[in-house]
Amino acid sequence: xxxxxxxxxNINMLGIREPDIYGKADFAALERFIRTSADALGVEVExxxxxxxxxxxxRIQQAYGRMDGIVINPAxxxxxxxxxxxxxxxxxxxxxxxxxxxxxxxxxFRQISYAGMACERSFIGLxxxxxxxxxxxxxxxxx
Length: 143
Ligand code: DQA
What we know:
By secondary structure, this protein is of the alpha/beta class. Helices cover 38% and strands 18% of the residues. It contains 5 helices and 5 strands; from the N terminus they run βααβαβαββα. The chain has helices spanning 19-22, 27-41, 53-63, 82-91, 129-142, and strands at 2-7, 44-49, 69-73, 95-99, 121-124. It has a 5-stranded parallel beta sheet, with helices on both faces. Helix 2 runs parallel beside helix 5 and helix 3 (53-63) runs parallel beside helix 4 (82-91). The chain is globular. The structure holds 1,3,4-trihydroxy-5-OXO-cyclohexanecarboxylic acid. Residues 10, 73, 75-76, 78, 99-101, 103, 110 line the site of 1,3,4-trihydroxy-5-OXO-cyclohexanecarboxylic acid.
């Protein structure tokens, strides 16, 4: 089973950006964590990070017919992007939303998740562990 893992804007700044919210581990550590988790679960992953909404839409579209599921942390686009929501709906792949921080306990503008409307599950506020839970969910769903 092949899963596309998408990280949105500023996730590449992990370790530097607001460490009190996002932790001190950097983006390379997150990518290693995702690959290690995928290996342990016996799933193949492709990792994609972009700061550009359209690039994320393009990557979701390219997953059609190639991938079996999508794990996505759309970052700030979570709360603004109907285009990412529509792309997830267009390809119709099982999708899971992840957020490192507990957005439910943050600002009002973070309380809406457009992408989440196209996702079967959301793992929120679990840090890196949320990605492992998302991969585990998709792996279990297939089996
Ligand atoms: C985030 C939460 C978003 O509100 C924020 O814009 C991010 C990261 C998270 O993983 O906690 O960039 O998606």
